[in-house]
Amino acid sequence: MKGCLLLGLAVMLLVSLGGVVGCGPSTVTFSDPNLETAIRETINKPEDPIY
């Protein structure tokens, strides 16, 4: 029983990580320049793309 539970958890972990690892970084774009400015100030990234 414990082995089946561990196997199930391992499979779920691999499946969930596969979705995250398989995706490349995507650039965030904002239609509202004021929102973009506020977010850039918050994350301390005044220029360059936001991923």
pLDDT below 50 for ≥5 consecutive residues: which ranges?
none
Q: Mean pLDDT, rounded to whole units?
A: 86
> In whole angstroms, how far apart are the ends?
42 Å
The percent range for helix content is 55-70%
Q: Sheet with the most strands?
A: none
User: How many individual β-strands?
Assistant: 0
Order of helices and strands: HH
Rg, nearest Å: 19 Å
Give the helix tally.
2
Percentage of residues in strands: under 5%
Going by helix content, strand content and strand pairing, the class is mainly alpha
C-alpha geometry: rod-shaped
Q: In summary, what is this structure?
A:
This protein has 51 residues and is mainly alpha-helical.
Question: Would you spell out the secondary-structure blueprint of this structure?
Answer:
Blueprint: H1 2-21, H2 33-43
Keywords, separated by commas or semicolons:
51 residues; mainly alpha; 2 helices; 0% strand
What would you say this structure looks like, in words?
The protein has a domain at 24-51. Helix content is 61%, strand content 0%. The protein contains 2 helices and no strands. The protein has helices at 2-21, 33-43. The chain is rod-shaped and about 55 Å long. The termini are far apart.
